[in-house]
Amino acid sequence: IPSLSLPSSMHLIQVDSVQRWMEDLKLMTDCECMCILQSKPISIEKDEQNELILSSQYNTCDNLQLLLKRAWIISTELTRIAQKLEKNRWQRVHSMTVRVNCHVRSMINEYNAITRNSSEEMQQYEKLLIDKCSEFTAFTERCIQTEDEQLLKSMKSCINETLTTIAQYFGQLIELVLTHEAQNLLRQIELSDSVYITESAISSLFSLTQEGAHLCRIIAKEGGVVALFKICRQDCFRCLYPQTLRTLASICCVEEGMHQLEKVDGILCLADILTDNTHSEATHAEAAAVIAQITSPHLTFTQHLSSFLENMEEIVTALVKLCQDASSGEVFLLASAALANITFFDTMACEILLQLNAMKILLAACSDKHIVDTPYSRDQVVTILANMSVLDQCASEIIQENGVQLLMEMLFERSSSGNSAEVAACERVQQKSAVTLARLSRDPEVADAAVKLSCIPRLIKLCRSPTERNNSDSVLVACLAALRRLAVMSPDGLEDSDFQQLVKPRLVDSFLLCTNMEESFV
Questions:
Q1: Which Pfam families does its entry note (predicted)?
Q2: For a Cys-Cys bond, which of 243, 357, 417, 462 suits 479, CB 3.0-4.6 Å?
């Protein structure tokens, strides 16, 4: 079977299966009735029809959600048809083909009822798709009316080809529809002077960005980043800055968004917003979120970072102040995440942080449970500490601010909810705190403080007990490295068996020994 070119914009929402069924049921229709009616609406007066359409459609966002759900159903059905075709289950193939035909017609009718000025190209693909679906239904109907195996075998390749063509036409139509809707929203943002209309359009645009990277690429290509930064440069739209910046952060997860940001001097605009004290905390927090997104170490494209370096000192200073003045855990998380990312790509950022007394500010925040209230926030703080710990001056700061105590506490980080994302964050906190201890223990004073706080027994426990580190290999490696560094500074702190198994062998041998340990529950 040829591989189907299904649209990459299909975004499967992870929900309870019964809930998914209940939602899909609203879009399902009786196939036989639909075949007879050919998706034509029951005739009513023109005015009544318009009233019905208006009352059933809420806004652009709801319309697009309906369209995407219908498209997801069609995409799923096409995949299932290919699977049934492989097994020669002709009766199922035909019934599913009829259902797809109905869904395609319904989707097109629903969209045409709510859209304005659809392009000729869209209308062309609508006709091609409907014609090909009708042809497909006729093919499969012939297949269930014959038992001639040879004829079925010869028709199978033709059906495969038709199925692939339908998938291609469907994907291209969805792409055109989404592009058309993005263009309409961006036109509203660019042309409207009304705060209400602009806010509604930005809200719908943000909803589109949540449907996945493919839609973010479409929006970026259609000039979404340019239009949104234009809003961020107009004082009359100040109340919309947080919402606008949140949408920008979503679009900038893709390379096309980054290119657009670079073209419009977006980093300079973000620096201006962050350093302007007349803006609200919410605006500063969302600007920090954009900075966190564009400096993410996971991104493979970094062309924009050259202009970032020019404004780095201003941005870092503003972010440290935001951490210090944060009124909530969310604001602190966004500001510290941006700082953590910045420390990855330039050591100058770490030097600026030292000059700004950032370590004192971050460690003080950690003692406030209302501000640093989740493993995610502690992950950002310990990331900054780990990256700053490469600087020699960092050790005295850590001692002065009682930072070794905090690192020790972080070695005990455990998830309270069992949520997989939170568990992963706890692992990162344990790993990075061990890495920071290993780096800082170059300094005898830090090593001495770590030994006095019983870091060695805790590191041994993490090495020997898989459940303590949630079976994480990265935590194990970091703990072995920290233990070896402390053992050099304080060899009396280890029992002989620990020394022989965890310190004396090559690190890889100790690693293999610990990963093969079976924990005793006696």
A1: Insc_C, INSC_LBD
A2: 462
